[in-house]
Amino acid sequence: MLAVSADGRSVRQLASGLARPTGAWAEADGSLLIADENGNAVGRLHPDGTLEQVASLPIPDDVVADSNGNIFVAAIGDNAIHVISAQNNQDIVLVGGLIDPQGIIFDADGNLIVTDSGNHQLIKILIH
Q: What is the number of alpha carbons within 13 Å of residue 41 lying toward its C-beta?
């Protein structure tokens, strides 16, 4: 992963050892959550540069986290949305039966919007 300065004049490496990072989410403490598709993992890049594996998932494509620290992952490998609980780090399939879920984001009310690309639709997952 590379960081580019705002003026585009300098580039520095943030992390190495990732197989195919496809999605990232900035956490409040400055850490980055990273969906690593070919690595079948979700990682956390801490501000000090250490990379921690948070979860092992089948082809994770995108990742977001809520204000409570719960991590939501769109995984292409099992066509599901996973939630990794902040309470006990348990991985739960929140929604299955999708086809190639790729993009995931929160709406203004804190619900998830997911691109279910294989079904040619956006879906809303009511969280709050």
A: 12
Q: Quick one: pLDDT at residue 12?
A: 82
Q: What are phi and psi of 119, to 5 degrees?
A: -100, 5
DSSP character at residue 96: -
C-alpha to C-alpha distance for 73 and 57, rounded to whole angstroms: 9
Q: How far apart are CA 37 and CA 22, in angstroms?
A: 6
pLDDT in tens, 68-80: 999 999 999 999 9
Neighbouring C-alpha atoms within 13 Å toward the C-beta of 47: 5
| Nearest-angstrom CA–CA distance, 79 and 95 | 9
Please classify residue 62 by burial: count the beta carbons closer than 10 Å to its beta carbon, then call 0-12 exposed, 13-18 middle and 19+ buried.
buried
- Count of positions (residues) in the chain: 128
**Amino acid letter, 120:** H
* Cα 8 from chain centroid (whole Å): 26
